[in-house]
Design a protein that fits this description.
Number of strands: 16
Oligomer: single chain
Number of domains: 2
Shape: globular
Strand content: 15-25%
Order of helices and strands: EEHEEEEEEEHEEEHEEHHHEEHH
Length: 359
């Protein structure tokens, strides 16, 4: 399942300007699943220049703060608080590296009675969950899951008035306050952090939603090239230059790959708490480790995953039809049945820890 070469991101993303903010590594949450001298950790040293990380910032902050920028890539709106590193800054790193928690162009505190959230950022409690999930996958032999490379506490944060100490900055952020709510600034679990992570492919199934058809093909092209490295026997016969082969990849192989990933989790005694399309990769990858927990899967887990997967794929394939016609009820039924069968084939292969190359 190892990658042998880096694959550029699909066209259509945009660069987000950033500023440097001060950070401090959290030693209690060390790197997961990578060697001490790995290219990934060497890159972390370069990014975290003098204890700093790049962060997006409010538009009203002023141009004088843009001088020390390190652009990050936004692949699509569904990636929310995560931004990818440009490939030219990581030529020797085979997977996709992203920073989660420094998308602070419009930070908002969501304050509820029993739960608080920093919109655009990440809190320490969530980093702990991601680190635990990543570590569980690594310990149980799942080598295609999200790897946590570093967790860093934010010492300063951007505001409209400039870069300020974290507690002072967060006091200026807008607050969606619900009755009896209060953001608990003083609690360790509520401190803002950034997580640097790696995964084989950053593109998810939801990245195909409501995108121009040309962009959909570009994302599938890139994902197929990655899968051809991971599973040459399964998809090696497909040509990413042909749209028909990309459609075949989406309808015949993507559901098998997603099913395998979730089945492999179950075989390891794990599950993804949030089996939605933003956590379903377009290659063999398990993103968002904060949802990976040690648990027996509930009986509905297979049904939830396969139905969610099938709906998005059908919705995407309908857009490939140039005449704009939707599937008839009979065709829709056949398509759903076929997708369920392919997902199930992958899922049961994962339960048996049978590599997709053997399917």
């Amino acid at each position: 399942m190892s990658l042998v070469e880096s694959v550029p991101y699909a066209p259509g993303h945009y660069l987000s300007p950033t500023v440097w903010i001060d950070t401090e590594l959290a030693p209690e949450l060390p790197p997961v699943g990578v060697r001490a001298e790995s290219p990934e950790l060497e890159l972390v040293k370069i990014i975290a220049k003098e204890g700093q990380l790049p962060a997006t910032f409010p538009a009203d902050m002023g141009s004088r703060w843009e001088k020390a920028s390190y652009p990050l890539i936004s692949l699509s709106s569904i990636h929310g608080r995560s931004r990818e590193l440009p490939k030219e800054h990581a030529p020797h790193v085979l997977g996709d590296i992203s920073i989660k928690g420094t998308t602070l162009s419009n930070p908002t505190l969501k304050t509820m009675l029993f739960y608080n959230e920093l919109w655009g950022g990440m809190l320490y409690r969530d980093a702990v969950s991601a680190h635990n999930g990543s570590n569980l996958m690594h310990e149980r032999g799942i080598d295609f899951g999200e790897k946590i490379l570093a967790v860093a506490r934010l010492k300063t944060m951007p505001t409209e008035e400039g870069i300020k100490p974290t507690n002072e900055a967060m006091q200026t952020y807008g607050d969606e306050l619900l009755p009896l709510g209060r953001f608990r600034f003083d609690e360790p679990d509520m401190q803002p952090v950034a997580v640097i992570r790696s995964m084989p492919n950053a593109y998810r199934l939801r990245d195909l939603r409501d995108r121009p058809v040309a962009t959909v093909y570009s994302v599938l092209d890139r994902s197929l090239r990655i899968s051809a490295q991971q599973m040459p026997n399964l998809v090696g016969g497909l040509d990413p230059y042909y749209h028909a082969d990309l459609q075949t990849y989406l309808t015949e192989h993507v559901p098998t790959i997603i099913g395998y990933a979730f089945g492999r989790l179950r075989a390891a005694g794990l599950r993804q708490k949030y089996p939605h399309t933003a956590n379903m990769s377009l290659s063999l990858s398990l993103p968002d480790a904060d949802g990976i927990v040690e648990s027996e899967l509930p009986p509905t887990a297979f049904t939830t995953g396969v139905n969610t997967c099938a709906r998005m794929i059908i919705r995407t394939t309908e857009r490939f039809n140039r005449n704009g016609k939707k599937l008839t009820n009979n065709d829709l039924h056949k398509a759903k049945r076929g997708l369920r069968e392919r997902y199930g084939e992958g899922y049961h292969a994962g339960l048996k820890e049978k590599h997709p190359n053997e399917l």
